[in-house]
Amino acid sequence: MKVLFLHPDLGIGGAERLIIDAAIALKNKHHDVKIVTAQYDESHAFSETKELDVRVIKLFPRHILGRFFALCAYIRMIFAAIAICLKMDFDVVVCDQVSACLLVFKLFSSARRIFYCHYPDMLLTERKTYLKSMYRFLLDSFEEWTTGMADIICVNSQYTAGVVRSTFKSLKDHKLEVVYPSLNMKYFDEIETRTVEEIPEDAKFVFMSLNRYEVKKNVALAVKAYAHLRHILSATEFDHTCLVIAGGYDKLNQENVTYYRELVDLALANDIPSRHIVFLKSPSDREKAYLLKRATAVLYTPHNEHFGIVPIESMYLGKPVIAVNSGGPMETIDDGKTGFLLEQAPQQFAEAMKTILQREDLRLLAAKEGPKRVQRLFAFEAFATQFDRIIRGLPVD
């Protein structure tokens, strides 16, 4: 079948990772796959995009005088959808993040429409003023209306399914397919273990935070927890530790630039010695794998994260994950076996870090149970088979 993916911005993030994995999965199942996006920079995208047919349709700016980003995204996707209907032939269209384009496909195409909802967009913005509230009311209503135009709505977790039903009242009885993002285990199996130059050689215990430099990722929690860890360890123990903050960074994204600076300043304000904390910008896929293999444990700090692929990658590599007890991690992490689920309090995170550092038996348990859990629940082939059946319109077990 001819399958077309329409995605707003093919950068580096969980949504992009899922779309690329889905495209690769369907390509491996012998479908003719194309990805259309309004924004694509090969140097700021996952390496697998080079192996896919990616086309850019950019017919409207990302913003107007630094404002109206959401409205512009809607218009960009509507224009892209119109261009697709005029120029391209496809049997199935898979959209995500922006549902506005579904209206165009419903009106001007006979293709089946699949919408992958990572999380309702209306819950990802603030409404501080009356004008902003009115502006968002119109967009939110349009989002709910157009989301309902999908033939099939997929979500990334049971948590997100519940949020969608409670947020979009008109969809409370709509069938939702839970399609967990997958992990390409073969990729991690083929990555060798190697030294990471930025990490001090004498750092026996390395705590890793791997998230984009965005406020919603709550990375400051990792810095504060590490600062507290310094006060509950002996000087000798702490001297053999290191915290690595790594994640997607786009110099054109003002939030990335500002939040990176805030995190560096936070480390300085908490008197964390520079040799004990490392900040890395936009590590490549291979570098991220090297970092995870080097880690003793991974700190996953977002609150109410919709799913979260980093805990899956970490568990597959046998690393315990310390995460906030909300959202997707409640489904992915086996508390006490493959990591810890905690309140978003620096003191709790620090105590868990100390426990992992001092108890080899827990590290060994995570090394044993983590890979088994990922193989059982998040294997790439299971994901590929499920997505293939959805594309073909077949029942999903």
UniProtKB/TrEMBL annotation:
Residues 194-372 form the Glycosyl transferase family domain. Transmembrane segments: none annotated. InterPro entries: ALG2 (IPR027054), Glyco_trans_1 (IPR001296), Glyco_trans_4-like_N (IPR028098). It catalyses: an alpha-D-Man-(1->3)-beta-D-Man-(1->4)-beta-D-GlcNAc-(1->4)-alpha-D-GlcNAc-diphospho-di-trans,poly-cis-dolichol + GDP-alpha-D-mannose = an alpha-D-Man-(1->3)-[alpha-D-Man-(1->6)]-beta-D-Man-(1->4)-beta-D-GlcNAc-(1->4)-alpha-D-GlcNAc-diphospho-di-trans,poly-cis-dolichol + GDP + H(+); a beta-D-Man-(1->4)-beta-D-GlcNAc-(1->4)-alpha-D-GlcNAc-diphospho-di-trans,poly-cis-dolichol + GDP-alpha-D-mannose = an alpha-D-Man-(1->3)-beta-D-Man-(1->4)-beta-D-GlcNAc-(1->4)-alpha-D-GlcNAc-diphospho-di-trans,poly-cis-dolichol + GDP + H(+). SUPFAM superfamilies: UDP-Glycosyltransferase/glycogen phosphorylase. Its EC number is 2.4.1.132, 2.4.1.257. It comes from the Eukaryota. CDD domains: GT4_ALG2-like. GO terms for cellular component: endoplasmic reticulum membrane. Pathway: Protein modification; protein glycosylation. The keyword Cell inner membrane does not apply. It is found in: Endoplasmic reticulum membrane. It is a single-pass membrane protein. Belongs to the glycosyltransferase group 1 family. Mannosylates Man(2)GlcNAc(2)-dolichol diphosphate and Man(1)GlcNAc(2)-dolichol diphosphate to form Man(3)GlcNAc(2)-dolichol diphosphate. This is Alpha-1,3/1,6-mannosyltransferase ALG2.
